[in-house]
């Protein structure tokens, strides 16, 4: 029977406040695949941002490897991190991030079958504070011979890295994958089953032909897609070739009725003895600690609520002209007036750009009727292709219009018109969650001379 934790202790010990909450990480792999994957979450004072993230390259307890921040959803193959979700709360901000890079922890652990390393992660905030986590990874032997102790040569699944297994944009894009709408393409979750004993005569656990897998939410509940660990046939092999991979089919978490949040992709490699019986060197799907985490997905869909009848707005739009590939940015203005029954306070605003254009800044500037000379900036998040700018908390504070009162707010995101732009393009805006007003500016694009 577990002992309940007092509420005061919960606040004090909450890793989101005092360190980093580890959502998941690449916890176990063979010496062949010395890579780092880590997904974490921190809670910070309002407005505080991540300045840099470092981690331990050799597992020596020192965070000595620097990483670069890249746009959300990029899924690159270098030492880098992405902020994949930023939630503004009443008293703090919640930052969820994914981190990836190389490791140098490939020393042969034999005669033991594995060796464990704590990998220190330091998140440095622009306030000067440093948050730390120490996820542990288990590195398995990458070779086997008959004279080795019993568990050396346990089956394993590869941790996909770089472009070695195909996939878009690379083989490791299934770790820290962002799926705002819940859809996961069919090339993201890759299974490559290796058994160093495969085909050996008279050797225990010398045949691997299947694994079990499961998607598990951050709260510990499974996805509806995998209510229990699911059997997946796979061709076991003992060489380092990558041609025998299998991939999960495309799936839609929203369609399945799954809740938003972070999901781990867990896999349990299996082995059979020469007589066909399950081998003890396989990994037990009844034990969460036996799983290999090969991927993760962050699903951010928010179900629509009933629209508040007191919220209404009109948005004045304009028609602009631009030249394809021009150096100067375009600032399509959207002038919002409150035609509802109550003040529009802080609200979510989403800007969308058509093909051939992209937003150049991760924020939007705006002015108010009370002082046209004073520019205010609201922070946002750019999509990977920079064609969607989501500003989750814009303080419009816009009073209802009425006789003798012309209250307005003018918002103008920065837009680049690329050389491929053609014709009449529509730049969109939508207010609220749920949406209560939409509009679009038109840009007439002329070809470059």
Protein architecture, described:
With 449 residues, the chain is mainly β. Helices cover 3% and strands 42% of the residues. It is built from 3 helices and 36 strands. The protein has helices spanning 7-13, 15-18, 253-256, and strands at 21-25, 28-30, 35-44, 50-55, 65-66, 68-69, 80-88, 93-102, 114-118, 121-125, 130-133, 136-140, 156-157, 177-179, 183-184, 190-191, 193-194, 210-217, 230-233, 246-247, 251-252, 261-269, 292-299, 313-316, 319-323, 334-338, 344-352, 357-359, 363-368, 371-379, 381-382, 388-398, 409-412, 415-417, 423-431, 437-446. The strands form 10 sheets. A 6-stranded mixed beta sheet has the order 25-36-35-27-32-31, with no helix packed on it. The protein has a 5-stranded mixed beta sheet with strand order 1-3-8-7-6. Strands 14-23-22-18-19 form a 5-stranded mixed beta sheet, with no helix packed on it. A hairpin with a 4-residue loop joins strand 10 (121-125) and strand 11 (130-133). The longest helix has 7 residues, at 7-13. The radius of gyration is 26 Å and the shape is elongated. The protein starts with 6 loop residues before the first helix and ends with a strand. Residues 1-12 have low confidence and may be disordered.
């Amino acid at each position: 029977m577990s002992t309940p934790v007092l509420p005061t202790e919960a606040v004090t010990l909450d890793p989101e406040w005092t360190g980093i909450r580890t959502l998941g990480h690449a916890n176990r792999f063979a010496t062949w695949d010395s890579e780092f994957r880590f997904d974490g979450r921190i809670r910070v004072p309002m407005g505080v941002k991540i300045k840099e993230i470092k981690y331990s390259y050799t597992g020596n307890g020192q965070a000595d490897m620097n990483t670069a921040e890249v746009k959300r959803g990029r899924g690159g193959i270098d030492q880098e991190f992405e902020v994949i979700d930023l939630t503004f709360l009443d008293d703090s901000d919640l930052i969820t991030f994914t981190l990836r890079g190389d490791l140098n922890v490939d020393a042969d652990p034999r005669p033991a079958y594995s060796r464990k390393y704590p990998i220190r992660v330091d998140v440095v905030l622009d306030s000067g504070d440093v948050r730390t986590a120490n996820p542990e990874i288990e590195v398995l032997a990458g070779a086997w011979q008959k004279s080795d102790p019993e568990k050396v040569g346990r089956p394993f699944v590869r941790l996909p890295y770089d472009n070695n297994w195909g996939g878009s944009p690379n083989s490791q894009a299934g770790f820290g994958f962002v799926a705002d709408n819940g859809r996961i393409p069919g090339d993201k979750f890759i299974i490559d089953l290796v058994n160093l004993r495969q085909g050996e005569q008279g050797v225990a656990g010398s045949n691997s032909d299947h694994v079990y897998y499961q998607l598990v939410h951050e709260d510990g509940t499974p996805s509806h897609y995998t209510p229990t660990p699911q059997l997946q046939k796979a061709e076991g092999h003992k060489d380092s070739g990558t041609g025998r991979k299998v991939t999960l089919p495309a799936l839609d978490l929203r369609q399945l009725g799954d809740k938003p949040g972070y999901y781990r992709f867990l896999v349990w490699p299996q082995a059979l003895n020469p007589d066909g019986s399950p081998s003890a060197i396989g990994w037990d799907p009844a034990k969460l600690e036996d799983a290999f985490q090969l991927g993760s997905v962050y699903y951010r869909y928010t179900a629509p609520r009933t629209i508040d009848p007191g919220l209404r707005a009109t948005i004045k739009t304009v028609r602009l002209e631009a030249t394809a590939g021009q150096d100067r940015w375009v600032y399509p203005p959207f002038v919002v007036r409150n035609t509802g029954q109550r003040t529009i306070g802080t609200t979510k605003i989403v800007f969308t750009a058509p093909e051939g254009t992209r937003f150049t800044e991760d924020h939007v500037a705006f002015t108010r009727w009370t002082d046209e000379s004073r520019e205010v900036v609201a922070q946002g998040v750019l999509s990977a292709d920079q064609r969607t700018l989501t500003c989750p908390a814009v303080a419009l504070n816009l009073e209802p219009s009425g006789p003798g009162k012309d209250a307005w707010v003018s918002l103008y995101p920065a837009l680049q018109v690329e050389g491929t732009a053609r014709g009449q393009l529509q730049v969109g805006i939508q207010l609220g969650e749920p949406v209560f007003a939409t509009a679009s500016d038109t840009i007439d694009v002329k070809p470059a001379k």
